[in-house]
Amino acid sequence: MKKYRLAIVGLGRMASTIDQEVINYPPVKLPYSVAASCQETDRIELVAGADILLEKRSAFSNKWGIHALYQDYLEMIVQEEPDIVAICTKGELHAEMAVQVVESGVKMIYLEKAIACSMDEADKVLEACRENGVFLNTGVLRRFDSRYQQAKKWIDQGEIGDLQYGVHYAATSLLHGHIHSVDTLMYLMGDSWATRVRGDLRPHGLLIEDNRLDSDPSSTYQIVFENGLEATTIPVGNWDFEIFGTEGAIKSSNNGMNWQLQQKTQVTDRYTPFLDVEYPDPVHHSATIFCLEDLIDALETGCQTLGDIGIAHHATEICLAVAESHRQDGSWIDLPLKNRSLYIYHV
Ligand SMILES: NC(=O)c1ccc[n+]([C@@H]2O[C@H](COP(=O)([O-])OP(=O)(O)OC[C@H]3O[C@@H](n4cnc5c(N)ncnc54)[C@H](O)[C@@H]3O)[C@@H](O)[C@H]2O)c1
Q1: CATH code where residue 244 lies
Q2: Are residues 97 and 160 in the same domain?
Q3: Atom of ligand 1 nearest to the CA of 56
Q4: How far apart are CA 135 and CA 289, in angstroms?
Q5: Angle at CA 300, nearest 5°, toward 297 and 302?
Q6: Cβ(96)–Cβ(74) under 8 Å?
Q7: Would the CB of 347 count as within 6 Å of ligand 1?
Q8: Which of 235, 243, 278, 300 is at a distance of 20 to 30 A from 326, taking alpha carbons?
Q9: In total, how many domains does the chain have?
């Protein structure tokens, strides 16, 4: 089996240290960080890292025994010729770095979310990946998580009938948080494209000056998809998801820890409630390992990745359309988003 060489840009939490933060947090299956995930798959070898900070490079070297360390990530790519580059810097650098990594000839990229702060930036990432045949996945990890994949399988098998509506529950920020909720709803509901979006940013009345926000606001949203499905988020709860169909519902609670399948049941002539039916306990694997190996599967087979750049670009467009809706006093915004320079900073 070929072993692919992976190099990381940005040697902080997601790259290296986040595992220790979630040791007693059952919703996350370790390994979580990119470096720890590389150690547990025999398809990838961690070969190098780049960070502008000397102390981050030293800590990374001590933790993982990697000595090919660089201040300049582009020099790292030239010297080390990695097959995969994982970009684990903060959000404002994602798009620019992704384009540079594509242009340096790398064919597989793990790009942290969200891929961009504006659609102008996201368009450049999409175009660069498409023109250069690059396979990309982002860190929206629920679609790579075996528990959500099992739910999707049951939905696809028709266990809840024809899909109708998806609901997410949690108070969270737009581009750091809701990029995850939007992506997960898209995934569970078949990755169809949205046609209209509306939303509100919090606090109510938040002003977007000069088409730019320098912080990532909390938000709510409603989405209408081209196949007629709809989705929304409620700003309370614990990263719960509910997907409703004509014949039942699949519900997850406590950030994926508890799962419930309900099906329409004829109780009396007139009464057909959704009642709990048996649903197997999902197996729980590391989503980061799945995400990285999915890049390799895509390269080796020529099929698209599960979190293809087109999907990541569209999820970003939905989030930015929420901000545009807020800017237009909560109006429905038709996609594609016209205001492509609207910029929302996120970490
Ligand atoms: N997918 C997930 O579940 C998940 C979890 C945590 C964080 N994240 C995302 O990962 C990204 C990084 O977050 P973090 O918490 O790991 O950040 P962090 O601050 O811990 O690490 C970022 C690192 O990037 C380095 N850096 C900055 N500019 C650089 C440059 N020009 N070249 C090289 N390195 C540079 C910094 O010095 C820092 O060490 C964010 O986008 C965050 O949203 C995702």
Answers
A1: 3.30.360.10
A2: no
A3: 39
A4: 16
A5: 90
A6: no
A7: yes
A8: 243
A9: 2
